[in-house]
Amino acid sequence: MRNTGAAPAVPATTALPSRTAIPSSAAPATTAAPTTAAPTTAAPTTAAAESTMCVASELRGSFREIPASASAGHVEARLVLTNASASPCRTYGYAGMRLLDAAGRSLPTNVVREPGAEETVLLAPGASTPAAGRFSPDIAGPGDSSTGPCQPVAVRTEVTPPDDTQQLVVPGPGVPVCEKGTLDLSPPQVGAGAGASAGA
């Protein structure tokens, strides 16, 4: 007899449990080491590189006491040098000085260089740079006159610009300079005068 019954059911396949993703441990991010920029040296400006040293024939100036600057028997003064030429020039370091009387005769002069940074100062045409000075106009020192003024009045001052062998004569200070003409002088500084700028 023909079997008409249904075929036996095949048991369903049991699905395998899905794998649980194992979290991966991310490698720690690499921290970039800080970089230190190498110091750069400013290149000389074109004007400074092309300019020449200021010489006496190109300069005008003055050496004057600063009003109301008296302190402890001394006064402050200012040596001002101005570029009177049509081209820029530069100056660096201390000027030489000699005090003169009304007849242009030399007076005792002792320039003491005060410690200070010596900087190259670029002077455009018409620009000036001052150097600070200090002296006593009325307190006699060794070798000075003990009666009357300590020294004759210094009417003018002969100035030798740095790195020059010629001189210019400027007015002032107009008072005696005691202690046998002792002047404390500082070098000119960048930015201290009208039109003065840094050079290289």
How many structural units, i.e. domains?
1
Order of helices and strands: HEEEEEEEEEEHEE
Question: Strands of the biggest beta sheet: in what spatial order?
Answer: 2-3-8-11-6
Strand content: 25-35%
Major sheet attributes: 5 strands, mixed
Topology readout:
Elements lengths: L45 H5 L1 E2 L5 E7 L9 E9 L5 E4 L3 E5 L9 E4 L6 E4 L4 E8 L17 E8 L7 E9 L1 H4 E4 L10 E3 L2
Parallel strand pairs: 1-4, 6-11
Antiparallel strand pairs: 2-3, 3-8, 4-7, 5-9, 7-12, 8-11, 9-10
Protein architecture, described:
This protein has 200 residues and is mostly beta strands. It has 2 helices and 12 strands; from the N terminus they run H-E-E-E-E-E-E-E-E-E-E-H-E-E. The protein has one domain. It has helices at residues 46-50, 178-181, and strands at 52-53, 59-65, 75-83, 89-92, 96-100, 110-113, 120-123, 128-135, 153-160, 168-176, 182-185, 196-198. The strands form 3 sheets. The protein has a 5-stranded mixed sheet with strand order 2-3-8-11-6. The protein has a 4-stranded mixed sheet with strand order 1-4-7-12. Strands 5-9-10 form a 3-stranded antiparallel sheet, with no helix packed on it. Strand 9 (153-160) and strand 10 (168-176) form a beta hairpin.
